[in-house]
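Second attempt. The first submission of PCDGA protein had a stray character pasted in from the spreadsheet, which I only caught after the job came back as garbage. Lesson logged: always re-copy from the clean sequence file. Corrected sequence (699 aa) follows.
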Amino acid sequence: RWGRRQRALLCGVLLAAWEAAWGQLRYSVPEEMPKGSFVGDVAKDLGLQLPAIRDHAVRIVSEGRTQYFALHGKTGHLVTAERIDREQLCESAQQCVLRCELIVEGEMQVYGIQVEITDINDNAPSFRETEIELRVSETTAPGSRFPLTEAQDPDSGGNSLQSYELSGDEHFSLAVQAGPGGDQRPELVLAKALDREEAAFHELVLRAIDGGDPARTGTARIRVTVLDANDNAPVFSQAEYTVRVPEDVPVGSVLVTVTATDADEGPNGHVKYSLKKITQKASQIFHLDSDMGTMTLLQSLDFEKGDSYELEVQSHDGGSLFDTARVVVIVTDVNDNVPEISVRSALSEISEDAPAGTVVALLHVQDRDSGPNGEVRCSLDGDVPFRLEKSFEDYYRVVTARELDREQVSEYNVTVRAADGGSPALQSSAVLALRVLDVNDNAPVFAQERYSARVAENNAAGALVLTVRATDADWGQNARVRYRLSEGRVRGAALSSYVSVQAETGALYALRSFDYEEVRELELCVRAEDGGAPALSSNVSVRLLIVDENDNAPQVLYPPVAPPAGSSGWSGVELAPRCAGEAAAPGEAAVSLTRWLVLAVGAVSCLFVGFLLLLLALRVRRWRREQLLAAESGALRGVPVSHFVGIDGVRAFLQSYSHEVSLTADSRKSQLRFSGGSCCDTLPARLPPDEPAPLLGEE
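This time the job returned cleanly.
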């Protein structure tokens, strides 16, 4: 006996291991267990680590609104989350199995769990009617049978209804017939002829017993009324009525009409109808009119909750005679349920360098309809870099179909669509929001392939020369660009001593004043580097052209300065341009120099002419004022005639001035000099104070 137990235990362990290997676990637990009762050691059977369970990386998912099972975080045991009533969940099903799934978040794995709910004897048999009224004619022959109401026991197996007992009177006995489905149908058998004059009523007790330990019982009281003779029983038009109705038939519709006839006349021929064998659930759905025999619908049908119903209808006349018929209502499916998409697990962000095949979401899709109406097809909307893969039963995985590029698309709203096979098809959708994380896969790119600028010599130190700009297609720190100069030397000095670049803006500044005669152009390289790790960079060439300015005076080479005394005298000089000591200046520089010399000469000439005109205006104004003063006084005394000059005098005055103009290549050193000694014949500014002013008449 001990060996058999060991073999059974070993077989159970091997079976659990085999089922775990195939992603399926089976357990059993009695009904009505308190909340938190042990169901199975899931962590052991699946090899899960307890820390992962404590970190909520493993969870239990059940269909429906009520979660009947939970995962104990400390032990890894599957425990009950609610008190489970087998009869409420599975009604009359022989095997009651609840299904749930175990989701492993980190591994994107799902395991199916089936828990069989075993029955306990928690329900006693009960009769739908505890008071049964029978009317039997006194002419009824012994051996006649009268069907009795069956007892109902929601329990199953050995805990269900097992037998009936009858007590109370010797005129009646009990017979139990087996129905088509194996159920027991009690019948009251007339064992002895009745005599209404001897006894008008008979009181009996019918007891139903189940197979539990201890057994539970239910009772019904039977009252038999003895009637006068009624020798014709009602007869149904057919023994079985079968009707097929769609599940969306309106409430109040007539499903079927049963008909029975009785050959008797008067009250003995008046037939009434009643439902004899009907479950509590069916009694809330169907109604039988006792006079017309029409069966109507009390509430909406649902194929997913019940696809067929079997009822037993009894017709009885005014006496005690009756007939029975069977009514079968078959409910046909209508495509009235849209597919349901449940997101069991999903990522909210993914790196753009994630390899193809990376799982981003785990979905569960189901349709409660049956047949083609319940067949679901899933698809993804739009041209997205993702695809669907079948995972486990009704589970699908959304995986990447190719590598992602954040610079092209930074966010995805992936629409998963599920459509059933109905006509017309019903469909539903779910949207997965996924953000693509940046990877430093783009180097900075300059706005121009090459930069150049012209800088005038003698510039101020720190002057802005130009600004280079580079952009990076990446995001965040990976897109932050910094600039720096590449190493180099100019005329033996470090390049960084001539120019510098601002690291954040790319602005290029001159660190010193340039001299065209020393450096005419600078070739340098600017590097742009992003903030990634490792960083990516790119280079651009920058050319600075130094523009010449007229900042050097010409030197007189001929004629030479007289040699000092005692020297050997002048030996002759060759005239040469300023730039003869190096290579010939470019044509552009020569044209610029000539232009500036012409402008300088023109400016000096204009200044000189303006000065002469101003001086002439002052002289005329003074002469005019003296004329006015003389006219007012009537006579001018002490003024020599030679001092009153006309136009010829002014011309003579102008001719008496001599000037020298000295022009150089450097306009800042040009000179304009007037000779003071040649002005002796000009008008004096005012008369000497000690000489009398003779009158014009005396002259």
